[in-house]
Write a structure and sequence with these properties.
heterodimer; A: 482 residues; Amidase signature (AS) enzymes; eleven-stranded mixed beta sheet; 17 helices; B: 478 residues; Arc Repressor Mutant, subunit A; 3 domains; 15 helices
Chain lengths: 482, 478
Amino acid sequence: MRRGASIYRQAQIFRENPSEALEEVYKVYENIEKKENILKAYITLRPLEDVLKDVRKSLESKKPLSGILIAVKDNISTEGIRTTCASKILENYVPPYDATIINRIKSSGGVIIGKTNLDEFAMGSTTETSFFGITRNPWNIDHVPGGSSGGSAVAVSAYMAHMALGTDTGGSIRNPASYTGIVGYKPTYGFVSRYGIIAYASSLDQAGPMTRDVLDAAFLMDIISGKDPMDPTTIDHGIESFSREIERIDPGYLRGRRIVLIRELWEGADRDVVSTVSGYIDKLMSEGLEVIERSFPEIIYSLSAYYVIATAEASSNLARYQGILYGLSEDPSNKSWTEYMAKIRGEGFGREVKKRIVLGSHVLSAAYYDQYYLKALKMRRILRRGLEEILKDADAIATPTTPTTAPRIGEIRKDPYIMYLADMETVTANLIGGPAISIPAGFINGLPIGIQFFSLPGKDLEILRIARASELKTGLHDILST
Amino acid sequence: MSVIIGLEIHLQVTSSKTKLFCSCSADYRNSPPNRNVCPICLGLPGVLPKPNRYVIEKAVQLALALGSKISDRLVFMRKHYFYPDLPKGYQISQYTMGRYSAVAYGGSLEIFVKGRRKIVRIRRINIEEDPAKIIYPEKDPWKSPYTLIDYNRSGIPLLEIATEPDLSDAEEAVSFVEKLLELADHLNITDPSLEGSFRIDANISIEGGERVEVKNIGSLKDLEKAINYEIIRQKRILETGGKVVRETRHWDDIRGVTVSARHKEFEEEYKYMPEPDIPPLEIDHSYIEKIRSLMPELPWVMRERFIKQYGLTDYEAGVLVSRKWLAKYFEDIARIYNKPDKIADLLINDFLGKINERGGRFDLVRARPEQIAELLDLLDKKVISIKILKEILDKIVFDGEDPKKIISEKGLTVISEDEYLEELAEKVIRENPKAVEDVKKNPKAINYLVGQVMKLTRGRADPEKINVIIRRKLGLLR
């Protein structure tokens, strides 16, 4: 495959020339052979022979994703392939059903190559809390790949898969995309079915594409998005084809578009990051993009609101891991139910997960509910209204995706406050349910940094178009090797 | 010392085809353990609930019937607690908190006890899911070496009806639940004859004492026993100068006692949270009106109509209306056979007894209404006696056999048919010339001849009729 080629175009080549597809499968597995030992992107990698068999079959059917290898974050249920959430408590759990998005990928000819590493139950932004060990950043192996979809980001970045699926609750797609130089797109809440995605925080979780460029992200959305009867929170987006909409975009699209820079979202970022991302925006302005600066003081409370809501929902969603029907278990003899469950949960969950369960239980308890949870919900409404006002005469908000480039391994996990700050740019989009995308904006000391565009719910095409025009304008969509 | 009782009744929506949040069958009773399950009702990682519209419709129907105020937004809440019958670690239910509300509030139901009417106020109606069933092999949890969990019931739709504390003894409580079950039956929500289709928690307190919640009451008999037991227990404590503590007690139906489950000095911590997987559902006026227009006749309306239209007594109408199936059966028969009092008599005094012997299961009835009508017609025409009717009722009701067919097969049919009786009479006259002579001298001697005919019919004929036939044959009557 040519450097900088979209998988979208590659898929057309595969359909016309199946032998090309098989060559790419070998290429991907060669990369895995070379790098996976160090990078550790996968928790479960399917054997080459099995994948080849599936690829051959999929090429015969000539479907949109025929011959395309998709890496799947290991919190997305795959029938017959263990799905661990990077947790000891689900170490050997094999789902009896496929998530809706896996169903859709399979029936569109896509082939699952393996299940990728993540922070345990998607809680974290470094992929260091996984029970299966850390994943390393391909741009510098002493650094983290970001998280929680770190494994998926690395698989795409190091060409150990064609495309990947991630999930994003407070930035888990965009953060690792920023750190590894790929495109990470969190769609509007409700555009992609959550059925089969192991919940962290149900009202914030959204799966999305992690890809080599924006066109691929749109391409994958064609397959995975849309109303699902199994998920009552999905909505009909009415977009016939994301990829056809994005395919025809060129840099000229930026002319007359307007983006907003919210001061408070730039103040917390590293100076290098601010200058790199500002420089990137300057390039876009030369194409006619308009930029306005605004202040939205309340936005600094996003992070607090996010951690209240996310931990509350997490404490609820994780109540089901009891060692009875599936997952970690042991002989329950001579124990009361309470003792048994406490033992399983005590041994099965890691520190970060336990911390969030305790936090969440606290904010949901009757005595503190009004003080925390209710206030956080109120904050969500304030954010939504404020951003509606700000976006009245603009297309999107732009920020650095992350306040820093990828930290060194072990650097921030010691200080949870700094770790949570890594989410400051990204959580707002989840709280308002809007679409957000991170695309590569440059490098600082050899490490990639992303720029994020986000907007109000339903404005997915708007941000995808701006992102596509931007990557074409700056040429930063072909930084990845093959 | 006055007694104050409030009830929480959990009704299974047994008429629903599916469970509350998945497409498993709501008819779990005939399934082998843990076969009526799917990833959703097992709460596997990643699944989402898919609310059952039919159940919402039924809840609105019940609310309309009770005169409750229906909320304009339907919101589900998660109620958290750790127990092995709850595979998700929370129950999807409803709760009153801030902007969140149950499906309906208020309303009332009228009961009639000790010759007087009483209005029992409804507090609220909730929709929620049933947990799995815990099975202790030795029945007594403490004696059981292990515990089994059957998830077939997990996710069965429930309506929870909470009353205000308006009841003052066991009789009123039983009467209220009977009335509610009757309503639920008529609205086609719950079939109360199905095992486990309703469960009751009773909040019982005595003036001057704390409130005690008794859980796990599964039948009307147990409700009566549990309340009476608890009243005596609490009174004894108060009389001996003790203090009743606020707690939850468990009704042990085997030993017939309430057992302390946990002290309840504080509100229990359920960490209620709005269910993020189900968007709030607007219940608008036109939806409610649509459901109102589809409401079946309510039992108390039907009862008045039965009294008026069929001339039944209050008691008869009450019994017939107590079950929707029975009321309909009665009316179906009444359309063909026009003596409603006779139908009521048969259904109440003979038919219902047989049903009750079989656990109140109307679904076992095979007799079509026409067959019951025919049976009553045969009785009218004196083809059969009431004694025969009772003998053959079983076969007709539960095997669906034709009344005429049974009668002829058993050699019963001809017994009092005039022609056959005449044949028998002629035979007896022919074979007993001496007795005939006696009759001509003394008409009272006819009893011997009648007795002979009766003997041939094995006592099944009507002696009056035989008497008349013989008198005609002998020219004593014309």
